[in-house]
Design goal:
Layout (H helix, E strand, L loop, with lengths): L9 H5 L43 E4 L3 H11 L6 E4 L3 H10 L6 E2 L3 H6 L6 E4 L5 H13 L5 E4 L5 H12 L4 E8 L1 H7 L2 E4 L3 H14 L2 E2 L2 E2 L9 H31 L3 H11 L7 H11 L9 H4 L9 H12 L4 H13 L2 H7 L20 H34 L5 H7 L11 H10 L10 H24 L4 H14 L5 H12 L12 E3 L7 E3 L5
Parallel strand pairs: 1-2, 1-4, 2-3, 4-5, 5-6
Antiparallel strand pairs: 6-7, 8-9, 10-11
The structure holds NADP nicotinamide-adenine-dinucleotide phosphate.
Amino acid sequence: MSSNDSSPTAAADTNVSHDRDQDPASADAHEAAPQPEDVSRPTPEAGGQSPVEPSANIGVVGLAVMGSNLARNLASREGNTVAIFNRSSDKTEHLVQAHPEAEFVPAFSYEDFADSLHKPRTAIIMVKAGKGTDAVIDALVNVFEPGDIIVDGGNALFTDTIRREKAVRETGINFVGAGISGGEEGALLGPSIMPGGSDESWVTLGPILKSIAAIAEGEPCVTHVGHDGAGHFVKMVHNGIEYADMQLIAEAYDLIRRGTGRTPAEIADVFAEWNTGELESYLIEITAEVLRQTDAATGLPLVDVILDQAGAKGTGAWTVQTALDLGVPVSGIAEAVFARSLSSHPEQRAVSRELPGPSASSGTEFGVTAQDAETFIEDVRLALYASKIVAYSQGFDEIRAGAAQYGWTIDLGAIAKIWRGGCIIRAQFLNRISDAYAQTPDLPVLLTAPYFVEALGRAQDSWRRIVSTAAAAGIPAPAFSSSLSYYDGLRAERLPAALVQGQRDFFGAHTYKRIDKEGTFHTLWSGDRTEIEAEDTH
Ligand SMILES: NC(=O)c1ccc[n+]([C@@H]2O[C@H](COP(=O)([O-])OP(=O)(O)OC[C@H]3O[C@@H](n4cnc5c(N)ncnc54)[C@H](OP(=O)(O)O)[C@@H]3O)[C@@H](O)[C@H]2O)c1
């Protein structure tokens, strides 16, 4: 039986159960699932003593898709013995039976789980983010001791992780929020891992996580991102960038299809070709596969029978909400999130279908001749590349701003490196980002690094042609066009923000600064319209 210094009241003391349940898709989905007390477990021996001896160096709680694959990954690495526990015992039993080679140490109570682990105990939680995470933390805090380590590998909101870390730290137990990317396959074969938490936990956890992470160019895709919620923050932005990347690819496909009339299978060839160049990435690779797929039932391209309403689990929205709070324009990511929202309002789309578009007489009929098709497709490729640079630049900007706001020291180049393998946005391109930060660690805007300046210069004309062609033809390309606007906004000598300041001063006396002298000013708009010095009210 574990000696439980934390006592049964520790869970209440840790105060981890202030659930924000920020995973919209997860809310209460498991309310009907059995509670821990319902789960059948071996009867403890007389006197309440557990017969369990410690034999595992790492444990996993939560054995759905991600947890079971991560447990198998851990078990496959030299020197690891893995204890496993799941709220409902059937998943534990099934995993043990299905994978005898893993030699798992199954536990059917939190007490036995704790007892099966060597000290300091280390356990990775892989459960539904939100209430499930808090429930498991509360249970583990009751059976763990000071110095032990609880890792949350789920998709938690970073502010929840900050709260949980603070509460758990008060018990003397370490809490680490670790973003894990790569889905089911990544969890099994090697994910990209973004752990936060204390330096002390990293000493124990680092070697374990390095052993299971993906390897990119000889380096494990894991780094100690920063303290408390830093890991989940970076994982959140990773997902935001993923949204933007996917939307940009989707816009590229749509333009090529509607412009050239090529079939999905033919466009698959285009993407496969792109995957051999500077756009090489997992997302481009799988796009080719999806476009090549034929629906067995109808014989049609699968993409044509899939309902065109994109879902979301909420991490893209978190990235945008956080960026708004930080005042960081992540317009590419925001447009990607909104594009999914727009697609998922069939009632609005139905009543809007007959809204006027460009008239045939405007000469904007869209159609690329066969001989122009190759040039057009190359324009789309360059527009995609330029917009992608913008999306990543915006994402890294958000990480920089988040680090400043929350007091984390985050090595941006190291983040680019750990995204090169295991995760959904893995790409060659990330080497260029780590090079840029290696050259200039405090680079204020990623896209001003020499490599990207050259690439953006090369893409300029194509990018503009594609955005204007899409607008003239009435084809939505929100991520392409917002990326270009962001780019032009950054490079503008002067912005109409001056006029906005004038308007704000007119209706709200919000004051303004001048370009020619120090101070803060207000014009007496409803008086004689003279200018006075004023308090800075912003
Ligand atoms: N799926 C992915 O591709 C992916 C990728 C990266 C990260 N993630 C994150 O990884 C985590 C696990 O994902 P998943 O897809 O494997 O599983 P999931 O469907 O998100 O969650 C199911 C697991 O959570 C457990 N659970 C739920 N509420 C619980 C509670 N109150 N107490 C104890 N256990 C509870 C379930 O136990 P029962 O079996 O008893 O119901 C089950 O083991 C999530 O946070 C997810 O966001 C997922």
